[in-house]
Amino acid sequence: MRLRTAALAATSVLGTGAATLAAGRYAAGAVLRPVRPRTDGGSRPTAGFEGTRLTVQSHDDGRVAVTRSLAARLPGLYGLTGRGTHAVVGPVMEDETGARSRPHTVVRELRRVTRGRLSTGATVRLTPQVHVGDPGEALGLEYTDVEIPGELGPLPAWFVPGDRSAWVITVHGLGATREHPMTLLPFYVSRRMPVLDISYRGDPGAPPPPDGIGHLGNSEWRDLDAAIRYAVQHGARRIVLHGWSSGATMALHAAANSPLRDHVVGLVLDSPVLDWQRTVRALAACRGTPRVLLPLVVRAVQGRAGLPEGPHAPVVDPAKLAVPTLLVHGPDDTVAPWESSRALAAERGAFVALHPVPNAPHAAMWNADPHAYEEKLRRFLTPFM
To answer: What does the alpha-carbon distance between residue 28 and residue 289 come to, in Å, rounded to a whole number?
Structure first.
């Protein structure tokens, strides 16, 4: 049910005041609800990609034409997902002559169709998730299914081996699963670094959160702490945490608060959620919440998730950031504000290297320019290898 419809229905039953409170709480639950897996071969849109709905106009010989929009013209490499379908598209291919002859379409390179088939007229969305399946199916990589003992129960993870003592733990973010970080597995494998790609509470196959909602990393970071403990017990001497979105927030929490934080030697933060109130407002708006309800949604989320109070309250005390950090973020992010990353880099300049990525939606910094992203990552990781 759309949240606007839910608010109107509640008003007719409860009266305006009670209905407004109820609708605000309902919207807060919708914002924080963990991702639900699809069973038809596609993937759900991650945070910030709900508005990238496109229609397939045609496809043939490595090209796919979709309805023209700002999303359709995003530079870089993306997944294209719909009911029963997942494909991978590259850059825009249409030249100026073609664009004039087909003014309502955008033609992109079609790299591959990994699930199902693309059908003319089908509705699809862009996604930063390029790969589906497991590391063996998607990338042909050697890997092991492992279980990390978490405080709520076993947490499924993929372990990709390497011969270095510095491990990488990857942590996906809002609306995503551990399939999203697979974009970086080939890079880390080429550097011979072991990778632990984790799930956490609320993910498919992992224990549900006790209250049924996510906490934007505020409690989920303890599952990352369990992954750090697992890595140390299995031979990791140094650990780099690579997180996206709320997964980046979890990495900040763990680096500041984990009993094993001395093993964490570096952070890679991609589109971190630092100003939780602005992120909650953005997510609620994307789900159709009426503007008048947004303050109530923020208040309900704060109470249910135990997040810090006050305007622009940081999710983690910036003063606790004391390890080398690569912060990759984009000024065009509509979910996690770029200004918060810029402020963190200014405050902790001795530790943080900030790299802006233009024309990149939330948690899609790699997608916008894979080569540049991996080159920044290579330079950052060199001292740890």
So the answer is: 10
Nearest CA to 280 out of 261, 258, 305, 260 is that of 305
Side chain identity, residue 292: V
Single-letter code of the amino acid located at 356: P
HSE at residue 214, side-chain half, CA atoms within 13 A, is: 26
Q: What is the DSSP string of 264-315?
A: EEEEEEES---BHHHHHHHHHHHTT--GGGHHHHHHHHHHHHTPPPSTT-BS
Model pLDDT for residues 52-91, shown as the tens digit of each residue: 889 999 988 899 999 999 999 999 999 999 988 999 999 9
Question: Residue 25 to residues 32, 168, 191, 284, 292: CA-CA distances in angstroms?
Answer: 11, 37, 46, 11, 13
Burial pattern 134-143, b for ≥16 Cβ within 10 A else e, equals bbeeebebeb
Q: Which two tokens stand for residue 55?
A: 């229609």
CA separation for the pair 135, 375 (Å, rounded):
22
Q: Looking up tokens 């029963």, which residue turns up?
A: 84
* Three-class secondary structure of residue 351 per DSSP: coil
Instruction: Kindly report the pTM of this predicted structure.
Output: 0.91
Q: Which two tokens stand for residue 85?
A: 């379908």
pLDDT at 47: 78
Total count of residues recorded for the chain = 385
d(CA 250, CA 241): 9
Distance, in Å, from the CA atom of 246 to the CA atom of 248, rounded to the nearest integer, reads 5
Distance CA 20, CA 291 (A): 12
Task: Flag the least confident range among 14-18, 46-50, 123-127, 128-132.
Answer: 14-18
CB 285 within 8 A of CB 228: no
DSSP helix/strand/coil, 203: coil
Tokens of 344: 């963190």
Q: Distance between CA 97 and CA 79 in Å, rounded?
A: 27
Angstrom distance (rounded) from CA 255 to CA 278: 23
Look-up of token digits 């294209």: 80
